[in-house]
Amino acid sequence: MSEHTEKDGDSSRMRFYFRWKRVPAYLSVTFGIILLTVLLHIIGMSDDLVNVALVHLFPVLVSAVFWGMGPAVYAATLSVIMFDFFFVPPYLSFTVEDLRYLISFVVYLAVAIMTASLAGRLRQQLDRVKSREATTNALYDLSRQITAISDLDALLDNMTSHISRMLGSTAVMYLPDSQGELKLWVSSGSEADDSEKHIWGSQSAELAIAGWVYKSGQIAGQGSPMLGKSSGLYIPLRTEDHIHGVLAVDMTASEMEKQREHRQLLEACGSLAAGAIARVKLAEEARLAQVTAESERIRTALLDSVSHELRTPLTAIIGSATGLIENDHLFTAEDRKELTSNIRDGALRMNRLVTNLLGMVRLEGGMLQLNRKWCDAGDMISIVLAKIREFSPQREVTVQLPEEPVFFYGDEVLLEQVLVNVVSNAIKYSPEGSKVTIQVSDDMNKGSIVFIVDDQGIGIMEAERHKIFDKFYRSPSTQHITGTGLGLAICKGIVEVHGGRIQAGTNPDGGTRIRIDLPAGAEEYPLTCSVQGEAGE
User: Fold this and answer.
1) How would residue 191 be classed by pLDDT, with cut points 50, 70 and 90?
2) pLDDT one-digit tens code per residue, 97-145
3) Residue partners of 407: CB distance under 8 A and separation at least 6
4) What is the pLDDT of residue 515?
5) Res 253: pLDDT
6) Which of 63, 79, 81 shows the shortest CA–CA distance to 22?
7) Cα torsion angle, 335, 482, 485, 441, sign
8) Three-state secondary structure string covering 395-432
9) Is 513 buried (19+), middle (13-18) or exposed (0-12) by CB count in 10 A?
10) CA distance 177 to 244
11) What is the chain's mean pLDDT, rounded?
12) Residue 141 CB partners (closer than 8 Å, separation 6+)
C-alpha cells in the first residue's frame, strides 16, 4: 500500500513539475498574441480578415516548434478568441453577426491544431535525432579515448571524467578488490579534499546498492524499477556472463524528462566500460603469461648455456689444480707454468661469463649508470688487446688508428667490455691463422667515433644481421661453438645507452664486420635503452 502511495506521490510531483516548467511558455504565447493583435491594428490590417487569420497562425507554429503541443493548442485557442473579439463585427464582443464565422472559427482552430501537431512532431523528431547524434558522438569519443589506454586506473579515471562531463553529475566506478569485495575504485569527484566524507558514492547506503547490483547483475536506482528512490543510477559492467564492476552516477541534478535518455546513455557507457576493462585485464594476463614464459625460456636457456660454458673452464681448473696438488714432484717448471696458465685462462673465461651475466641484469633492470669521462681510443684498444691475448693464439690481430689521438666522451670500463666481447667473438668464430682487424676513425661531420672489427670467419647471413643482437640467439651455423648468446646483446645495450649504434655487416675480404658508432662530444643522452637480445659470449 505504501509503495503505491509513494509512486502516486512521485507521479503527482512530476506532473506538477512539468506544469510549472511550461508557465513561461504560456506567458510568452499570451504576450506574443497580444502584441501581434496590437500591431495589426496599428498597421491598418484589421479589415483584412483573411490575412489577419493567417498571421495569427504564426504564434501557433512558433509555440509548436519551441514548446510543444500544449502551448500550441493554447495559442490556437487564444488566437481564435482575439480574432473574434477584435476583428470580427461586432467589435469588442464575443458575439458574431454572421453565424458562418462560427464555422470559420472551428475550421481555423482545427487547422491550427493540426498544423501545431505536425510541427510538434517534427520538433520531437528533430530533438530525438539531435539527442541520438549527441549520444553517438559522445560514445564514439569515449570509445576512441579508451582504446589507446592500457592501464586500468587511467582507463577508469578517464571514463568517469568523461561520463561526468557528459551528464554534469558525479560518476563513480566500483570494482572488486583482491578478496572479491566491492570497493569504490575511482570517482570523478576524487579531486575533492579527502577529509570530506560526503563525496557521493562513498556512503554505506550507496555501497550497499552497488554491492547488490554487482551480485544480481541488474540495474538499480533512480529511473529504474529497483530502488527507484535512490539518488543515483547503478549500471552493472557486464561482459557475457561475467560482471567486472558497477558504474554509478548521481542523478539528483538530472532533469526528469531526460532520465530515460541518460539511462540509455549510461547503459551504453557501461557496455563500453565493461569491454574496456575486460580488454585491459586480458592484456595484463597475456602480458604476465608472456613474461612468465619468457622468464622460463630465459632461465632454461641461461642454465643450459651457463652449464656448458662453466663446465669447460671448471674442468680445466680442477684438472690442473688436482695435478699440481697430487703430483707436484713429477712436474718440471715448464709443466707447472702450463698448468697454472690453464687455471688462469679458465678463471678469466669464467670471469667474462659472470661479467656478461651481471651486465645483462643491470641493463634489463635499468640499473646501468654511466661514469663518463674523456677516453683515449688508442689506450682503450691497448687494454682490450691485453685482455684478449690469452685466448687469441693463432690469430693475427691488426689495429689501424688515425695519426692524431682520438678522444671521445664515454664510460671507459663499459666500452672496453663492448670491444672485448666483439673482438673475442671475431676470434671465436674465425679459423686459426685468420686475420682480425680493428679500425678506429673519427667522423668530424657527424661528430662521432667509429670502431670497426673485421674477421675472416664464417660470416652472417643478411636475414640474421639483426637477430644476432637478440638475447640468447645463436646462429644455426655456430651451434658447434660454445656460447651463451649474451655478448652482442650487452654490447647493443651499452652502445645505445651512450647514444650510439651497433650493426653487423659483411667484411669485404670475407667474414663479418661489426661497426660501432659513438658520439664524440660530451652531450648528455638518456640513460635508458631497450635490449631486444644478444648473441655471442
Assistant:
1) very low
2) 666 767 777 777 777 677 777 776 777 777 777 777 776 776 677 677 7
3) 374, 375, 376, 377, 520
4) 92
5) 64
6) 63
7) positive
8) CEEEEECCCCCCEEEECHHHHHHHHHHHHHHHHHCCCC
9) buried
10) 11
11) 76
12) 162
Q: Please give the Cα distance from 488 to 469 (Å, whole number).
A: 5
Give the span between the Cα atoms of 48 and 70, in whole angstroms.
Answer: 29
Residue type, 165: R
What pLDDT was estimated at residue 305? Answer: 57
> How far apart (Å, rounded) are the C-alpha atoms in residues 469 and 487?
8
Per residue in 249-271, pLDDT (tens digit) is: 888 766 665 667 777 777 878 88
pLDDT at 286: 84
SS3 499: coil
Contact 276, 159 (CB under 8 A): yes
Top CATH class, 367-519: alpha beta
CA distance 231 to 127: 27
What does the domain layout of the chain look like in residue ranges? 2-142, 149-284, 367-519
28: left (phi over 0), alpha (psi -120 to 50) or beta: alpha
CATH topology of domain 149-284: Beta-Lactamase (3.30.450)
Residue 244 has pLDDT above 90, yes or no: no
**Residue that the C-alpha cell 678469466 belongs to:** 348
Give the residue among 273, 250, 274 at the shortest CA–CA distance from 262: 250
Q: pTM of the predicted model, to two decimals? A: 0.44
> Which residue, 198, 200, 199, 188, is CA-closest to 156?
188
Between these two residues, 34 and 298, which has the higher pLDDT value? 34
